[in-house]
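Might you be able to review the protein record set out just below?
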Amino acid sequence: MRAILTFLLLGLSILLKAQKFPLDKALPMDPEVKVGTLPNGLKYFIRKNTEPKNRAELRLAVKIGSIVETEEQRGLAHFMEHMNFNGTKNFPKNNLVQFLEKSGIKFGADINAYTSFDETVYQLPVPTDSLALLEKYFSVLADWSGNATLDPEEIDKERGVVLEEARLHKGASQRIQEKLLPVLLGGSHYANRLPIGLESVIQTAPYTEFQRFKEDWYRPDLQAVVAVGDFDPNVIENMIKKYFSEFKNPKNAKPRTKFKVPLREGTQVVVVKDKEQPYTIAQLYYLHKQKKEMTGKDRREAIVRTLFNVMMSMRFSELQKSANPPFQFGSTNYSSFLADLDALSSIVVAKGNDLEGAIKAVMQENARAGKFGFTATELERAKMSYKSSMEKMYAEKDKTSSINFVEELVEAFLNDLVMTNIAFDKEFLDQYLADISLEEVNKFTNEVFSSKGKVLAVIGPETAELPEEGILKEWVSADQQNVQAYVDDVVDVPLVQNLSNAGKYVAQKEIKEIGVTELELDNGVKVVLKPTTFKNDEILIRASRWGGTSLYDDIDHPAFASFVASNSGNGPLNNKQLSKFLSGKVVNVSVSVGQLSESVSASSTRKDLETALQMIYNKFTNQNLDAEAVSGALANQIEILKNIEATPTPEKVYDDTLQAVLSQNHPRRAPMTSDRVAKIDAEKALAIYKERFSNANGFVFVLVGAFEVEEIKPLLAQYLGSLPSNGKLSTFRDLGITPPEKKMNVVVKKGKEDKATVTLVYNGTYEGKVEEERVLNALGEILQMRLTEELRENEGGAYSPYATINYSRWPTPRYQGVISFGCAPVNVEKLVAICKSEVEKLVKEGAQEDDIQKYVNNEKLNFETYLQRNAFWASTLLSKYQKGEDVKGILHENDYLKELSTSSTKAAAKKFLSDDRWVQVTLLPEE
């Protein structure tokens, strides 16, 4: 009998093993995706998904980018992307943007596109509750596919916009990139095809060149329509066939060459200095042939690479938390690089001038991993982290946002991959994760550091004394014979060691209109609970209480209180130990001491909720000092600030000036300096932190997500009800930080690029009423529309003008209307005059009905989506309790939109956008 049983068990074992996905088999496409190809070659990918409800994400992906441009066309791939918003067959001139915005879809935030080396992708998130409108949106995609009119007048108008976009990119980063790319991508076509192109081409390219580019490359066999959302896939398929079948490929179509980056042997070195580069950084790339995920074997190898990345990240993180880290930042990570190459990238930011120490430290860590591999405990933690992440995604398989699916499908099309579904991903991981041995991971680690082709890029300030190429090569290839194997220090102690008695509930209130339960504990803590089904396994915790750094005359130590605490681990665990303890757990807890309040932010799964609450409990009752980690973190801050002080960038000087002007040089708004950080006493900062969290009375905790109220009440009573309380309520202090109540015009001259930045601020006080705040929101958004229309579309003088009106009721109700844009220095006065003219129009005439309708429709669409998100409810509930407002009104937040009118916006503009109180701060290049 035993022999028969053994035989049966052996047979079952063999059967189970046989059920594993074959490693030589191609990975399967997600069966929920409808995939098809039209006779003209256009591909389509359609997936039904109801998160969020009544919404869809549409994409037109085109397998062309700047890499296909001729020398006479450099910049036209990106320019064509712009022109598809400036006149198409069915939407002349700017009508396309106007139509979409009237539908509630916002230009920039929603409607957008990007152009890279190898692709151009158009993005269109849309509502799906109107079939007629949905069909109209597909006509937009079709027009983008091949119906751009390329009106010469519109091309000429858009030249200025594209040039302004190019101007925004000018600066140290672009100058450095232009010197790096010829070496990094040496021998490749990519080195001379940056998507932004050449200014000379943008300014003067003939109209015929645009037409030629469109005819050559905007063709169906290089395109795909991707649609994911709350719709009937069959209806969508018919729409795609209706609108895209008419397009034809040109006769003798140009081949779409797949360009490569040559894999060169040896170590290529490039050293770049720049006047505005504030720190020294080294980037070492170990280049490898690209590894695509096409088969089961490829997927298994990808898991090995992920485990490698997790463990390398853990090691560098641990090194960063030492008392004297050898660099400001360091990392080693394997990922895709460009074209047909992957790269193992080691990046390090040097401390001060010690580039040698930084490079050698990274090389030592790489050698340690390459020579000795990883430990069994490291691999186990990495597997736990990977598995818990997969389980979290699987738990949310029916609550995953459409944008996640659409981006994966676009990537699959562009890179000739397949998109597997989460059920397959989890099953594959369950089948193979346990089989991946330490020897296998260590073998990969040794191989990946053995690349014959490397590129070393060193970037530093103009004043830095950087070594010659030969010395850099010596540092990279320095003998690492003395490197020691990594020792994994693991501590096994309970997270909470001295738990107080659970608190008692003294009141419970049901707010049925919004599904909220309000609890009061006997220590003065209020708990607000909203169970939801928006996610299957997500719980968010938000909490706050008035107080903050405003209560202290000392400026710096309170400002560093939460910094010291966050770098000091949790309870009995120091920072390094905490990272290891949290492996395999989906939990995050952070605390903060702000200017006016203390706050807690946390998230977890249902399984890890108790861990999150334990960590919060420790943050109030048992926050120790990790002297080693804090010392290293403070030293790092000092080095960062020293770099900034030695080489202040134009943006840094400008931002500091703006803060000084708007706060009237208040010391609380002065930029932090290395000297001030050097004087921080960690014990003193931690004492302030402990003082702020020694009394939980007055804290409001909001929990939103996947839980049952009665199920978690005992946990809340234990960990929140036992928080210390002395019965006293905390408040804040008004520090008197106020903007100037007059007109001011300040000019900053810094930098060498021919570009300017302008910020115009209108400020004042208000009564602190929600009605005022709502109309301020509307004015800010409508002003943004007007400035985009005038500065960008009509003038071509600014690429992305920005306008908003911020406000706060505390410490006293104040608002701040902000207008900001970048432009050519010669255009500053003209564009500022246009901005002030648009503000004046709002004051004298109010908002136009069209703009009001765009704002109203966008707010309605956004609000419908927000109501399905845990994060919205968590932040909004906490805000309502802070303000003392009726939380039942949350569902009716948008009712005021019906009252928004030309006359109401006129009255508000007259009240809040006064011409007698504004500040203008302008950044111009040095003379």
